[in-house]
Amino acid sequence: MTEPLARRMMRVIDHIHDHPTADLSLDALAEVAALSRFHFHRLFRALYGETASQMVRRMRMHRAAVALRADGTSLNQIARRVGYPDRASFARAFRESHGLSPAAYRLQGGPLPLLAHPKEQEPGPMPDVTLTTHPPRQLAGLPHQGNYQLIGRAFEKLATLIAARGVATMPDGMFGVYYDDPSSVAEGDLRSHAAFEIPADTQIAPPLEKLALPGGPVAVLLHRGPYATLPESYDLLFRGWLPQSGREPADSPCYEHYLNSPATTPQDELLTEICLPLAR
User: Where is the HTH araC/xylS-type domain (predicted)?
Assistant: First the structure.
């Protein structure tokens, strides 16, 4: 039987506290949880109300504050003890966290700070999610980097290219494939693809790229309304449905299937299927 997701997230929290100088990158923590890197970040934030990166920094800064108040250990030693490679990067992080430089914090004195423990979020309402099986799909797409809300530009360019080249598209239409969690990745580094479904034997040329959506079980949440409110539906899926479902996400990214077009449909009538691939 698959280990419950909540228990695996607690294993990550224990790892963060027990190994402050280890590699606590998002991908490394996803490996500790034995979860796909595509979904670990969203699930962690949904369960605890903060990202894994925020928790790592909070824990490290607490350890540093305790060390500064407890003894005369040098700042260089404290920096290494809490996982920072040098005094300068440690000092920047500490000032952002506590509003004082490490030296000023030490001089200020006072009682040792308390560490706020992570609080598991309420599950939230159980959304209406459909379990289905999708066939493998072949897509032609263009990469987009940056704010997901601006991917419309890539779709516009994609539509122009497909029309100009006479590439046949399947009736299922448009898809967006999203590789990163906006709460865990800097906006400028977010990666996605704007894509259309094409017949499997279609030949394409740059700048178009071929993408494959694997077939298999999928959890589908139907979002009604503007694309700007999609994050609220993702939160429902990852906080309200996934932890209670007994299912586990597959090692492939979420994608969106657009059932109508903002060019011809009022914003509040837009229909988007949020598709979460599931392990078999």
Answer: 10-108
